[in-house]
Amino acid sequence: MPTEKEKMLTGKPYQAFGEELLKERMLAREMTFEYNNSHPRDQERRNEIIRKLFKSTGERFYLEAPFRCDYGYNISIGENFYSNYNCLILDCAQVMIGNNVLFAPNVSIFTAGHPVHPEPRGKEYEYAFPIAIGNNVWIGGNVVINPGVNIGDNTVIGAGSIVTKDIPADVIAMGNPCKVFRAIMPEDKDYYFKSLRFPAE
Q: Rounded to two decimals, what is the model's pTM?
């Protein structure tokens, strides 16, 4: 008979209030509490906490406090990851984040959800599906990424978007629900904001 944790990690309906999962969530809360209340100049200690909490990290990363997650051990971040304030990751399934990824403030990643019907929801059933974010991705402020979503390399997700379906590589996408707005073009590298060009070197 699979445990509730095994069900959670394999996309099956599960109940999150068994002893094993409660203990693991408490450990993550204790570690994120320590991280969020550590001195901002003690970067070595802060990095040590994240390396112990996450499944894997790159050499260089920085998460502004406060940061919160459910378990931590399902989160993988690549090289040169940066998260601004109030990042929230419900990592009941794998969350895989590539290299050179930027999160603006208040990004929320939800691998977990609940049944629509009130009867199984009232019995405290949940589900969880992995989320993957490619390399060189910028996620704007107040973005919500829902269970099972994949975001391709080099893509920008506009502020305030609710991402409910996969977003391909090399595009700007935005809205609720989030949809592709346009492709990122080679000439975009000449501009730093809308029609404002980088100064000539």
A: 0.96
